[in-house]
Amino acid sequence: MDWKAGLMSFLIIFLAELGDKTQLMVMTMSTRSKSPQMVFFGAAAALVASSLVAVLAGEFVLKAIPLRMVKFGTGVAFLGMGGIMLFKAFR
């Protein structure tokens, strides 16, 4: 079992999710709910389910496309998004 990959995934997702709109929505839902524990379990199940979809999709993509091309494609996509953001910021 690759504990390093699991720990890195946890840390990256945990830090990325802090203060995002999903966390704020869950916080709001828990203030209105009579059962905040169920809000927690529902939100946790949703994150697990969406992560499962992402892992399965990633596994499928890796079988269909070589890793080098996936890395190149994601790099181009991130550079493109960054360029669009810069263009909009200085427009």
Give the uncertain stretches in residue-range form: none
First and last CA, distance? 49 Å
Tally of strands:
0
Q: How many separate helices?
A: 4
Share in β-strands: under 5%
Report the principal-axis shape. flat
How helical, in percent, are the residues? over 70%
**Nearest-angstrom radius of gyration?**
18 Å
Account of the protein in words:
There is one protein chain. The protein is built from four helices and no strands. It has 91 residues and is mostly helical. The protein has a domain of 63 residues. It is flat, with a radius of gyration of 18 Å. The mean pLDDT is 92.
Key features?
single chain; 91 residues; mainly alpha
Structure at a glance:
With 91 residues, the chain is mostly helical.
SSE layout:
Blueprint lengths: L2 H15 L3 H12 L3 H29 L2 H23 L2
Helix pairs in contact: 2-3
